[in-house]
Amino acid sequence: MVELEGLAKAYGKTKALRGVSFKVADGEVFGLLGPNGAGKTTTLRILSTLVKADSGSARVNGLDVGTQPLAVRRILGIVNGGMGLYERLTGREILTFFARFYGLQGEELDRRIAWASETLKIDAALDRQVRHMSSGMIQKVIVARAILHKPPLLLLDEATRGLDVFARRSLLDLVMRYRDEGKTVIYSTHVIPEAEEVCNRVGFLYQGRILFVGSISEAKKRYQTDSLERAFIKAAEAAGVRP
Amino acid sequence: MKEVYWVALKEILSTWRDKRTIRNVLIMPLLLMPLFMYGPTVLLSKLQTHSQESLQRVAVCDLPELLRQEIKKVKLEPVVVDSPRSAVLSESVDAALCRQGDEYVIYAEESAKPIKIGFVVAKLQRALDEYKQQLIAAKLRQAGLSAADLHPFKVVKKDLSPSQARSYGILGGMTPYFLMLFIMMGAMAVVIDATAGEKERGTLEILLAAPVAHVKIAAGKLLAGLFFAVLTSVSGLTGLTIGAYYSKSAVKGDELAMIGGGLSMTAADFVTLLVTALLFAAEITALLLAVGMYARSYKEAQTYISPLYMALIIPMLLLMFAADYLQGSIYLYAIPVFNVYLAIDQIIKGQSQFLPLLICWISTALAVLAALYWAARNFSSEAVIFRN
């Protein structure tokens, strides 16, 4: 499904990624874990075709993100913590606006909006302008927009940032439901307990390098700890980098 | 092309629902422009009438009685003083007139109060002219000649300019400026929100990650900006027209021509002006779109757009001061922005010609495409999108 090979990216003299490689299979929730500045957002932006890698390759469903950006974007859903919405449009208008780019129209579009509304409990937001919504509701609409076209790959980048407990729970439940439907999720976060709850496999990313890729139990076993957080710290120490 | 329409529709709907923006860019020009046209015109006219009819004090020294009589006839009150300069500077009189040898000297602080003092000085000059005519007539009589001997022939000046050019006036000269202003106002209302606003809100990344070519996103935003640029221009120009119409009732004749209140256009010129203005609006909107993408916030966008505004004004100033000398060269119609000012100036005067106009349109259309390409590149440039 997703294949990254030797991905490197620098912003001026700052090396954001230094040869990142990992694979994510269909139906997996892959946790990309690392502190702020580790390179998680850059990795996801390369996957979402908004940033070009300096070297290496990234493929989604066999499609090259560098040369087939439109085809890649069609099979992606993206949510990040810093996203917002158009203040003077209603939830329904926003969902309709984006859904059209994925070829959704007419009755099919209505059905999808009803489905997303039921899944995320956003009925109240559909006919209300964004400026009159709570931040939790806004985040739910952002997620609804990302899943409306039922993308086979969902990229979540610090998606629970700033969410209250109810909205956060709702998002984590959605990720698990998505996994159960056989779809793929890359879940990028620095909140390791969240990843522990929803991910099948994880990748430790630190200072632009992948330190470990495997299941949560493999991580705990390799670093001889019962905490994924401690496993991450030990992986960083073993690689010669200290927080 | 459907995607372009959807993006444009989204931008238009967002802007349309912002009451403050609509009030500022659509309603205010419609209300303020008539005031701009009508207010100063009426005020100036009333001041002039008041000045003609009221009595003003002027200092005089060493004037013959005949001249004093003439001064009284033009509704000035002569006050005899020793020092005309002191009388004027102390503002006890509006002006002074003194004979010094063979000269009559008018003292006035005309530069400081050009309108008020200008009226008084004009009255003094009328009195002096009348007095001079009387002296000449007296001398001619003594020499056994008549006043007609001084005018062996008449000089008649005939202005062969089209009637449109004769009624050009201040309004005609200001039209390119106002057009640019209205286009900027309307386009900015959409474009800043559609570029820096998208970044500030965190919506740009979602939009650019949608499966639509970035050039189509840029084109949709351009279309929305153009829509509001046209609406604001229509609103502003309607306001100007209403103002000019009512100004006609306040002033007549030469003054009416001076302000451009009699400005009129043929249907063909109107259509030509419309096409030129539309291309110009697209040019400015595309430029705003390209420049606006560099900004990370509304505030920053305004600092980027100010130099662009200045850059649009400079060619207009050049045209204002040197239009007569610049219109001859056809190459000037290929210079973006300047060519539009030049073309509009000629269209309003009813003197536009096909080839220069065609060059202007082609040049402007190419400038629109270049600016759109620049904007589309910015929409795809990670250095611009994620500029931090």
Write the layout of secondary structure elements.
The complex is a heterodimer of chains A (243) and B (388).
Chain A (H helix, E strand, L loop, with lengths): L1 E10 L2 E11 L4 E5 L6 H8 L7 E6 L2 E2 L4 H6 L1 E5 L10 H11 L4 H15 L2 H4 L8 H13 L5 E5 L7 H16 L3 E6 L2 H7 L2 E6 L2 E7 H7 L5 H11 L5
Parallel strand pairs in A: 3-8, 3-9, 6-7, 7-8
Antiparallel strand pairs in A: 1-2, 1-4, 4-5, 9-10
Helix pairs in contact in A: 4-6, 6-7, 9-10
Chain B lengths: L1 H15 L2 H35 L2 E6 L3 H9 L2 E5 L3 H6 L5 E6 L2 E5 L6 H29 L20 H4 L2 H33 L2 H5 L5 H37 L2 H7 L7 H26 L5 H29 L11 H11 L5 H27 L1 H4 L3
Parallel strand pairs in B: 1-2, 1-3
Antiparallel strand pairs in B: 3-4
Helix pairs in contact in B: 1-9, 2-5, 2-7, 2-9, 3-5, 7-9, 7-10, 7-11, 7-12, 7-13, 9-11, 9-14, 11-13, 11-14
Structural overview:
The complex is a heterodimer of chains A (243) and B (388). Helices cover 40% and strands 26% of the residues of chain A. Chain A has helices spanning 40-47, 69-74, 91-101, 106-120, 123-126, 135-147, 165-180, 192-198, 216-222, 228-238; strands at residues 2-11, 14-24, 29-33, 55-60, 63-64, 76-80, 153-157, 184-189, 201-206, 209-215. The model of chain A has no long low-confidence stretch (mean pLDDT 89). Chain B has 388 residues and is mainly alpha-helical. Chain B has two domains: 2-45 and 164-385, no CATH class; 54-150, D-Maltodextrin-Binding Protein, domain 2, CATH 3.40.190.10. Chain B has a four-stranded mixed sheet. Chain B is elongated, with a radius of gyration of 29 Å. Chains A and B meet through α2, β6 and α3 of A and α1 and α8 of B.
Question: Which strand order spans the largest sheet of chain B, edge to edge or round the barrel?
Answer: 2-1-3-4
Describe the largest sheet of chain A. 6 strands, mixed
Question: How many separate helices of chain B?
Answer: 15
Mean pLDDT of chain B, rounded to whole units?
A: 86
Could you give the distance between the termini of chain B?
32 Å
Strand content of chain B: 5-15%
Question: Globular, elongated, flat, extended or rod-shaped: what is the shape of chain B?
Answer: elongated
* Structural class by sheet pairing and helices of chain B: mainly alpha
Q: Approximately what portion of the residues of chain A adopt beta-strand conformation? A: 25-35%
Gyration radius of chain B, in Å: 29 Å
Largest interface between protein chains, with number of residues from each side: A-B, 30 and 22 residues
Low-confidence runs of chain A (pLDDT<50, min 5 residues)?
none
H/E series of chain A: EEEHEEHEHHHHEHEHEEHH
What is the topology, as strand order, of the major beta sheet of chain A? 6-7-8-3-9-10
The averaged pLDDT of chain A comes out at 89
The total count of helices of chain A amounts to 10
Helix content of chain B: over 70%
Low-pLDDT parts of chain B are none
